[in-house]
Amino acid sequence: MLEQAYTAIKLEREDHVLFLTLDRPQVRNAMSLTMVKELSQVFNFLEQDLTVRAVVLRGEGGSFCAGGDIKDMAAARANAAKSETDPFYELNKTFGELILQMNQLPQVVIAILDGAVLGGGFGLACVTDVAIATASTQFAMPETTLGIPPAQIAPFVVKRIGLTQARRLALLGSRFGGEESVKLGISHFYAKDEDEVQRLLGETLGSVKKCAPAANAITKKLMLKAAEHEAQSLIDDAAKAFSSAVQGQEGIAGTMAFMQKKPAPWA
User: Fold this and answer.
1) How far apart are CA 75 and CA 192, in angstroms?
2) Domain total for the chain?
3) How far is the CA of 261 from the CAs of 208, 255, 267, in angstroms?
4) Tens digits of per-residue pLDDT, 162-194?
5) Are 196 and 220 found together in one domain?
6) Which among 57, 61, 87, 224 could disulfide-bond with 79, CB atoms 3.0 to 4.6 Å apart, if both were Cys?
7) How do 116-118 and 9-14 pair as beta strands?
8) CB-based contact 58:136 (threshold 8 Å)
């Protein structure tokens, strides 16, 4: 799957890391339906392959992602009159399914957020595990200025930064930079230049390598579930997951390595 040709994204595998680049720089990596489908294909592969332990997501040409492609919106409008289904619904739902799929990937998803992080791109940033903003980054949810709601990304933005700030940003269409994004909790780090981006990325990937891939996947799944359910209902699920993990290959190897003061086999 990862060897096939793509037209809207680029892939490069290095050891346990997949570098995934949004590759439509002429439109600041706006997400076309083709890009969404290609990303979904890659995510389908990643869901089954824990040999990939981290995904590094970045945009080509100095921008992360400027949101949805207006040409797809225009095509949906043209098809609306002659279609028995609702093309706007289908288009928006397809993106919603993608962002949910990305949110639930078992790998550690790291985003380098350059330039435009707008609309749907803002939504992608809000489902990453680690986000690095730069001096060039400009965030915004401009949908309401276009007369539409940020429908699919709104729940993920609320979970990322809380209801109060999400309402302000969505209802005003406010723009802000990388340093502010760290204060809001969208990004985890701010890098003033590319050297600092690479240093932070290297440190993050080094930390990922010290963590067992299956344990990370289970932990991420539990944390996502915790965000959607009452803690009491999670106690049984969490205990079962812990018991299974600690008695599994990684749990045995990791605890044994700790006792022997040796690096874990995956480190």
Assistant:
1) 39
2) 2
3) 19, 10, 13
4) 999 999 999 999 999 999 999 999 999 999 999
5) no
6) 87
7) unpaired
8) no
